Amino acid sequence: MLEQFGWSDALQHQFTAFAAEGLIPARVIVQHRGHYEIATEMGELSATMAGKLARDAEDGGYPVTGDWVAVLARPAEGSATIQHVLPRSSTFTRRASGPGAARGQVVAVNVDVALLAASMNADLNARRIERYLATAWESGAEPVVVLTKADMCPDAEARMAEIEAVAMGVPVLAVSAVTGAGLDALRAYLKPGRTAVLLGSSGVGKSTLVNALAGREQMATQAIREDDARGRHTTSHRELVLLPSGALILDTPGMRELGLWEAGDGMSAAFADIEALAAQCHFRDCSHAAEPGCAIVEALASGALDASRWRAYGKLQRELEFEHGKEDPRANAESRKVRIRRNKMHRAEMKFRKRME
Asked: At what angle do helices 126-139 and 156-167 cross, to 10 degrees?
C-alpha cells in the first residue's frame, strides 16, 4: 500500500532509525484541524500528534497532507500517534494570511509536480500566474500551468499566448473537465507514484478537475459567482487522492492571496528574462532608473520588456524584502536603501511613460 503512495528505497533508508524505535512509516492523506488520516501497510488509520512533537516542532514542522511520518500504530483501535516527520523533498510555503501575519504557512509538501490552476474566464491574471510560478520554483516542484474551463473561453488561443509570454518555458495547458479537452496532455505529467498538487484561487475548478481525473465524484464542487467570475471555497481541507493511473494528486483549499514567503531562487527562475537583462547593465549596482547603459531602460523603451511585467517584478521583490526585514532588523535597514533606490526607479519610469504618451 505504501508503494502506491510513493514509498521508495530512499525513504526506507531515511526510516532506519525510526524503525529501530518500533515505529512504522505512514503518509498523511487527509489533514483536519485536530487529527489526521494516514495510509500505512496496515491500512488507513486515524492519527494524532504526539505531545512532544506538538511542543518541539519548529514553525512549519507540524505534519501536513503529503508528509511521510513515523508513527506508533494501534491497528486494533484503528488509530496511531505521529512521533516524527521525515525530511521533505519539496515544500510549498506562503505567507500566512490575515492582518499582521508574519509567519510561513506550509501549503504542500513532498510534491513532484505543481499544477498552477487558473480559470480561462474574466478573472485570468498573468500577474497572479507570475506569483505562483515564483513560489512553485522555490518549492522544488516542477511547475505546470493549467488553464481550466477552456470550453467556456471564446478566445482560448489568445489567452494561452498571454500566459505563455510570462511562463518562461513552463508548460501551459488549456483543459476542460466538461469536454475532456487537454486532459490527456495533463495526464502525461501524472505518473504512478508521483505526487502532484493543484494550487489556485477559489472557483477555478480544481475539485472538478480532480473528479475528472479520478473518474468519480471524489471532491465536492460549487459554481462560481456570475458577477465577478470568482468562486467560493469548496475544498475545506487538503486531501491526497490516489488516481486510477497510480498518480497522486493533492487538492488544496482555494487561496484568495498567495503572499510570498521565501522565493529568492524562485524569483530568479520566474523572471529569468528580467534578471538576464539586468546582468547586461553597464553598472553592477544599476538602479534601472537613469544610468547610462541600463539594459532594463533600453528594453522598456524598445518594447522588448513589458512595462507591467517589470512593475510586477519590482512589486514582488519589495514584498520579499519586507518579509525578510520583519525577521531581520539589519536586513530591514539594508532593504530600506534598496526601496529608496527602487522608488527613484519607479518615478523615473513614470516620467518616461509620460514622455512616450
From this structure: 40
Q: What's the Rg (C-alpha) of the chain?
A: 22
Distances (CA, A) of 180 to 146, 161, 187, 213, 287: 13, 21, 11, 10, 48
Q: What's the CA gap between 349 and 93, in Å, rounded? A: 32
Same domain, 109 and 238: yes
CB neighbours of residue 269 within 10 Å: 18
As a whole number of Å, the end-to-end CA separation of the chain is: 64
312 Cβ partners below 8 Å, 6+ apart? Answer: 127, 130
Burial 303-332 (b: 16+ CB within 10 A, else e): eebeeebbebbbebbbbbbebbbeeeeeee
> Which helix (H) or strand (E) element contains residue 84?
strand 79-85
Query: How high is the pLDDT of residue 337?
Result: 55
pTM: 0.77
Give the integer Cα–Cα distance in Å for 255 and 232.
10
CB 214 within 8 A of CB 243: yes
Q: Say if 330 falls within a structural domain.
A: yes
pLDDT at 230 over 50: no
Structure-block grid coordinates of residue 230: 470568482
Tell me if 99 sits within 8 A of 86, measured CB to CB.
no
Q: Are residues 71 and 101 in the same domain?
A: no
How many domains would you assign to the chain?
3
Cell representation of residue 69: 511520518
Q: What digits encode the pLDDT tens for the residues 88-117? A: 999 888 765 554 444 667 888 999 999 999
CATH number at residue 329: 1.10.40.50
Most confident of 79-83, 123-127, 262-266: 79-83
